[in-house]
Amino acid sequence: MNLFSRQMALGVLLAGSMAAGFAHAAGQDANLARLVQQRVEQPDVLETKSSAVSVQVQDGNVQLSGWLQHANDYQKVHAIVAAVPGVKTVSSTFKSWASTQHP
After folding, report:
1. How much is the pTM?
2. Is residue 27 part of a domain?
3. Which residues form the BON domain (predicted)?
4. Which range is least confidently modeled, 9-13, 36-40, 41-45, 91-95?
5. How many domains does one find in the chain?
6. Calpha distance 58→51 (Å, rounded)
């Protein structure tokens, strides 16, 4: 095998390894997104079904978006999501139906 063939073989091997790593990371992110979504949808998290939260995860970083019933629900959601194992960071772009805060 000449030098060029060896370099090509190494390149193919590295590309395959990187693709497998990306697929594994994507699978982990998908699992984490499911865990976070399940936790947010628990009855004790948000007061009403008027809330709708979408979850996206990339490399363990969670992005939340959607509608919340009350303006201060985001604090509760952030705390609950941050406690899920595997979550590195939590950010959000929520809108709320009510501008008033609830107790």
Report:
1. 0.69
2. yes
3. 28-98
4. 9-13
5. 1
6. 23
